[in-house]
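SCUB1 protein: structure tokens wanted.
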Amino acid sequence: ETCAVNNGGCDRTCKDTATGVRCSCPVGFTLQPDGKTCKDIDECLVNNGGCDHFCRNTVGSFECSCQKGYKLLTDERTCQDIDECSFERTCDHTCINYPGSFECLCHKGYTLYGLTHCGDIDECSISNGSCDYGCLNTVGSYECVCPAGKKLHWNKKDCVEVVKCLPNAKPAPKAQLVCSKTGGIESCFLSCPSNTLFVPDSENSYTLSCGVPIQQGKAQQKRNATLPSCADSLAPPIKQKARFKIKDAKCHLRPRSKEKTKDSGKQAGLDNCQVTFVNLKCDSSKKKRRGRKSPSKEVSHITAEFEVEMKSEEVTDTCNIDCVRKRMEQKLQTAIKTLRKSINKQQFYIQFSGTEYEVAQKPAKATDGHEACSTGQVLQDGKCVTCSTGTFYSGEHNQCVPCSPGTYQDTEGQLTCEPCPSNDGQGVAGARNVSECGGKFNLIIKGLGQCSPGHYSSDGFKPCRVCPLGTYQSEPGRTLCFPCGGGLVTKYEGAVSFQDCETKVHCSPGHYYNSTTHRCIRCPVGTYQPEFGQNYCITCPGNTSTDFDGSTNVTHCKNQQCGGELGDYTGYIESPNYPGDYPANVECIWNINPPPKRRILIVVPEIFLPIEDECGDVLVMRKSASPTSITTYETCQTYERPIAFTSRSRKLWIQFKSNEGNSGKGFQVPYVTYDEDYQQLIEDIVRDGRLYASENHQEILKDKKLIKALFDVLAHPQNYFKYTAQESKEMFPRSFIKLLRSKVSRFLRPYK
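Answer:
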């Protein structure tokens, strides 16, 4: 025997030796007992070929691959979870990564559609938001509204009568203007025990109101002011307005220093004036003056409005109502005169929560470190932060202090807290509104004392009455029960939902019950109902809609908008509602028009179009809208294997059309534009079968991060130097780098 004749009978390699021919086999094959034949070794039989997940035997070798949601590392053995949350645009709101998968979650007030997208829930479409009267949907939330003459109950759903005044209530403590003379110097201070509102209008001006005006104007209605008691006051109040000027001072409410407060202890000749309402506006914004010499000194103006209530008990036999009014007016005028003198000498202070504040200050004083933030704000992490609701700004401590039990504050940046209507000192610290006052709010927090579903009472608290037959209530703490409508009765008293109403027919999901016609009506397009026996359909989230009427699930709600971002260098196109199923009867058109001297490379990682529809859903890419123009790509099928190709024309017109038949996940197709000088190289790469031969290479074209890196280098070749050799090795399999390297070096050095 000799190798010269018929390869010595060997399958593969033959070698002549002294004893005859010797056959051998390449790596991946084993020599059979006949000493001639080579048989492929099935590496997968031993230890799964060292593969983490799947092992596939090939002729002379083997290939590892991974389960869905994992990627093969560059050692071509190990599988690693793909962290989908690290990609751009994975979820609209919150993304949670799991081994092999991920989940999208939405913020409160939003619901998930199309697997990854979040749309605003229209709560008003769900039983009118359970509102007693009107419902107003807002982005991420909703509000119940009431008709004129009624206001929202603390449960934020029911409407209750507006109470104008509180019978037998202790009147709110009045503001006091106290003026005194010490050693020939007049000083005044205004104490504000309740109904205070501080509004910083600008850096150099503010408005401050104290008390409740007798005829409440529109400006005051915004404020949740404590109601006046129903004690009769004699109309109309005494009103006076005065304007004061402070030279060389800026409008800044600042705490008065401790030393000064001590000095004001020795007071003589007190003038004490009880005031129902005071409104102060301090303004030191510079006004441009005519004339050459404009004064360099700061001038602040204070405008003060006072209201004093006339009290019936002050009328006597010797002094009738007109006499009382005159006396009060004189008293107020005297107080204002003294106030003017005290303001001139900068001896006017306002007292909130036991701290005295100077109304305006000389600029020289503003050198202290604490002056960095305006009043009502404190410094946190180098930023000025306004004191939140439930707290007040304490000038004495220069910090936001929670309201003490028995008081509340419903406005930011205030200097005091308001006393609760039932001021028994009970309740929680840091109350943010009247409803959080007192003992009842403790019950609300604990959920105790409220009427349970199926029950109601005049204020939503125990003792409660049961919902009568023909009505229901699904929520706790309500003041009413909703009627079934159409003369329907409930199976029992204390019903908790419309499903307890004995309807004439039982409606299946995708329908709602009409109480007037006693029929089941299909949910209109753009709505859905997943439950049996309901009397409403839920509006689709955000700007989504359904393909047909009678939808039973939020997954039928689809975004109708064509997706994608078209950039000069990189971009992508996306079927509407991707990665959820695309809608029926949709048409999308995209135009990719690259900059001069650039061509387009497209990668279709995977595409899902149902074939059952006889090509009813089609994606086509061609030069222009004309059906006869050069076509680069057209498909109406599902392909899970990726493909990369260059455009046959410089520009691309892309169209996606769907019919009313079956739907699918659709596609997300990225593209890159590259310098046309590289045309030959790019085509050489994308047309090479080895790019798609192995599953590893296919996975590269599906890997969003790797495609991004490849596209980055194709669009801007200088960015190649951003990636170190080590990084490239860690990103791409050896076989892929080898394939690219041989082509690039041949392209750059064709004659070597």
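DSSP finds ten helices and 53 strands in the chain. The first strand starts at residue 13 and ends at 17.

Cheers.
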